[in-house]
Design a protein that fits this description.
Elements: H1 15-22, E1 37-38, E2 41-42, H2 46-50, H3 57-61, E3 66-74, E4 80-87, H4 91-102, E5 106-107, E6 109-111, E7 114-116, E8 118-126, E9 138-147, E10 154-162, E11 170-175, E12 180-187, E13 196-199, E14 204-210, E15 214-221, E16 225-226, E17 229-236, E18 245-251, E19 256-258, E20 264-267, E21 273-279, E22 288-294
Parallel strand pairs: 9-18
Antiparallel strand pairs: 1-6, 2-5, 3-4, 3-8, 6-7, 9-10, 10-15, 11-14, 12-15, 13-14, 16-17, 17-22, 18-21, 19-22, 20-21
């Protein structure tokens, strides 16, 4: 699905006379007048913006479709500093559209060759007939959660191997839990990669690009202490569809309980217990909850 710009209707009536008159105009020849404003564009084009749009399965099943129009203020540096929903469709689709625009970097508007902050209008169309489930770029995907002995820190590791036919590099967006810290990203060879973050209405996103078929990333998580109980509660969300994937929780002598019973439980060679889950594939930006309650 792509974010579409408004269609422009071109009339042919009197075309010969009009063309003759306009042929001397600078803007008709593709040369903007000195005072003309060159509008901002997403870095990488509107196709990049469309990859950040998710059409939730639950919304599709209700038959909801239509257009959400987002007005966005693009700063002189190409950052979206403010968004307003000019045309609403559905609360969840409105939020998805606004968040996608907020996470997009733009080539700033130019006037007389100088950057200028401007408002633009971006219509985003949700059409059932045109939506296609996004295929996963991954051959395998696994998340590992390791709580420490005092339950005061969770170490999260995610390992992925991409399909060899995938075009690289690839941009990844991963929603971090509220109390995440010390994020990191590495290639399969152990090379440390640069990453950034951006915040929207959903939370803080870890953003990075990878040009290797293997990638690993992670962070530490400190749970909120509430009446002596500590929980790891993470809404996992990513901008790429996932294949059927695995989740493992590894710990030593601690006792844990799960909202969902694990598919397998066994002791590793190092004596630590490993709880494994087999999870279904996920569409892009589909949420997956993981809750671990410690006794």
């Amino acid at each position: 699905m792509q974010a579409r710009l408004p269609r422009v209707l071109v009339f042919s009536f009197g075309a010969i006379i009009i063309l003759a008159a306009l042929s001397q105009c600078a803007w008709f020849n593709g040369k903007p007048l000195e005072s003309e404003l060159v509008k901002p564009m997403p870095i990488g084009g509107y196709e990049i913006l469309s990859t950040r749009i998710h059409y939730p399965r639950s919304i599709q099943e209700q038959g909801i479709e239509g257009t959400v129009t987002i007005n966005a203020l693009i700063s002189e540096g190409g950052i979206v500093t403010e968004t307003r929903i000019a045309n609403k469709l559905n609360p969840e689709l409105d939020r998805i559209a606004a968040n996608a625009v907020q996470r997009t970097l733009f080539e700033p508007a130019l006037r007389n060759g100088k950057p200028e902050g401007v408002w633009i209008s971006i219509p985003i169309i949700f059409a059932l007939s045109e939506w296609r489930k996004k295929s996963s770029p991954f051959d395998s995907f696994e998340m590992i959660v390791r709580p420490n002995a005092a339950y005061q820190l969770f170490d999260i590791e995610i390992h992925a191997i991409m399909k060899t036919e995938m075009e690289l590099s690839r941009r990844f967006e991963v929603l971090l839990p509220i109390n995440a810290e010390k994020s990191w990203v590495k290639t399969g060879t152990g090379q440390v990669l640069n990453f950034g973050s951006v915040r929207d209405e959903t939370g803080e996103w870890l953003i990075f690009e990878v040009d290797d078929t293997q990638v690993a990333f992670g962070f530490n998580y400190r749970p909120v202490i509430d009446q002596g109980n500590q929980e790891f509660h993470y809404v996992f969300t990513m901008n790429h569809a996932l294949p059927a994937w695995g989740l493992a929780v590894i710990y030593g002598e601690q006792t844990v309980s799960f909202e969902q019973a694990p598919d397998r439980i066994f002791k590793q060679d190092d004596g630590k217990m490993r709880f494994e889950y087999d999870l279904e594939s996920l569409e892009a930006y589909e949420l997956r909850y993981l809750e671990i309650r410690l006794k």
